[in-house]
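Support reply, case 0932

Customer input (verbatim):
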Amino acid sequence: MHELPPTPRNTFCGQTRREFFWEAGGAFTSVALAGMLLQDGFMARQAMAFDGTTPLPAGGAPNPLSAKAPKLPGKAKSVIFLFMYGGPSHVDTFDYKPELFKHDGKTIKVKTKGRGGDRNEGRVVGPKWNFRRAGQCGAWVSDLFPHLSTCVDDIAFVKSMYADSPIHGSAMLMMNSGKLLGGAPALGSWVNYGLGTVNQNLPGFVVMLDSTGGPISGAQNWGSGYMPAIYQGTVLRGEGPPILDLANPEGRSADLQRRMLDRLKAWNTRHALARSGNSDLESRIESYELAYRMQSTAPEAVDMAGESARTKELYGIDHPQTEEFGRKCLLARRLVERGVRFVQVYSGGSHNDANWDAHGDLKKNHDYHAGRTDKPIAGLLKDLKQRGLLDETLVVWGGEFGRQPTAEYAQGTGRDHNSFGFTMWMAGGGIKGGVSVGETDELGSIGVGERFHVKNLHATVLACLGLDPNALTYFYAGLDQKLVGVQGAEPIRGVMA
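Our regenerated output:
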């Protein structure tokens, strides 16, 4: 078989007339576009290393953590998320249910679903603490929180929260990332992606774990998922110095440290330019620079020696029971005061009674954990308020789910997990204090009426920061991914100022 001759072409410099004008038009357009981008400074911004300061050949990237203006009006500038790991019992804390007192010890018909599966009846466990009305708003608060009860006029309670899982690992991932499975960016990552960070010398997303350990699903709770690694959380220690090795090694001057990092950055940047899109590598380059900047900034930020004795007493740092959580709450205030965008503070770690997971002795468990956190949290709210910071700091309190109104076992007062109805609260920037929205049934087993999913909570956090939860997207796997899911979610308007 003979090869067919090539198709005849009317050529001009090897091109058809149509091809010539098409390519020429594209070239002219490109020249014009390039000129406009140069005038706008876009090219210059692109020609930066991952630290945002070092010029690179064409093709570099700007600092991804540069502060960005919110797209919408938002009162909050920072978030402090107080995470009560393990699932505090809503019916023993803020969701007053008189029927539970009446039926204490009785076996009744009630549908529940927890780690033990579906049940149609159970033995009622009445609350072991009295409830009292507090503040001008008259919110019901149990005796577990005598200090926090003095702050309720600044708090908005959401009492019909629900989630998709009654299992710790997946429920924590949902509360932190909006997804049951790992691999999605954490809430703090989304906030830093959307707004950047005001202080380039401190991490934009900080996590403080309990001294007993981290959550069961691990670092995925503060990871950046499919976003660049630069957006992931930085973990500070729960005990002792929050950050180790801030000082230079003995005999190494600041000038020598700077020259060493410059050389390292040059090598890493050259390596990275040939491997575009490697977010872990890009993040490592930035982390070296951040670590250097933190050597001069972080010691002052974490040093509480300058805080007054009155302030330390306010947070409970003067008492062994409240000292650890009080220090973390005070550090959280100091960090947002210095421009850190998102701080998450964990109460409880490891598993079972090391956190709020009260399967056995409910009273012993909640007395312990509430006793460690009540005064520090109240101190945080009061301190933020008196410093004029509460209006621009959103404080969120809650766990991954609540607990059931019935006993888990034949004996004892322990309660199983409850993801069908539980309580969380918010205070500060963008939040209307002294209000309560949503409710559970007469026993607290399930949300009734208007219910609010975890995604609605996330949408509220973003909206308070001036971010549209349904427009904040990151393109991945062929979709415009959102914290609130591709279908979107609305903020909880009833708690917003």
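We compared this against your earlier run and they match. Two observations from our side: The CA atoms of residues 385 and 391 lie 8 Å apart. Residues 19-46 form one domain. Please reopen the case if you see a mismatch on your end.
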